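Morning run. Coffee first, then this:
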Amino acid sequence: MRIVLSDFMSLDGVVQAPGGEKEDTDGGFAHGGWSMRYFDPESMGPVIDEALSASEALLFGRRTWQGMAAAWPERAGDPFADRMNEITKYVVSGTLSASDLSWHNSNLVRPGDLLDTVAGLRAKQGGDVQVMGSPSLARTLIENDLVDEYRLLIEPVLLGGGKRLFPEDGQARPLELVSATTAATGVQICVFRPASPRPA
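And here it is:
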């Protein structure tokens, strides 16, 4: 199974929750809903649908899981929502208990078990494991070389600060561009994978 990170990202690298005004105000973030004006259903919708259809499981940090768990069950009846509700979900949390996992097909992963759990998933045959948002979790996976693909929707806006996806540990991680498409709204829809080592 492949670990695939999917993120809406500003041009200056911010991945703070892109939805509602008060969805994520951590750090004084004042641009809630920043992504919505750039959503182009014709080009971005199929990319998001394709990523979900290729996914066999979703992996979330606690906060992202809680936001999703509050939103998707009540949207049942829409094909995308139905897929979100039925798919296997893993939530990484040191504070939730199994009894808190009311969203169908959710499984608890303790932070100390994260790397072993992900390594185990990568060793299995199957579809993708998609990480939506969850920047702290995603950064941990990047730091430990556990990401197989990055699906980035890079939006033409500078947000000036907020949560970021990539580690700032001084380590170079070469990537190769697999595909790039430009949406009508100027969003760059890019797929990257870790670059194969160059022969000596």
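The longest strand covers residues 3-10. Good start to the day.
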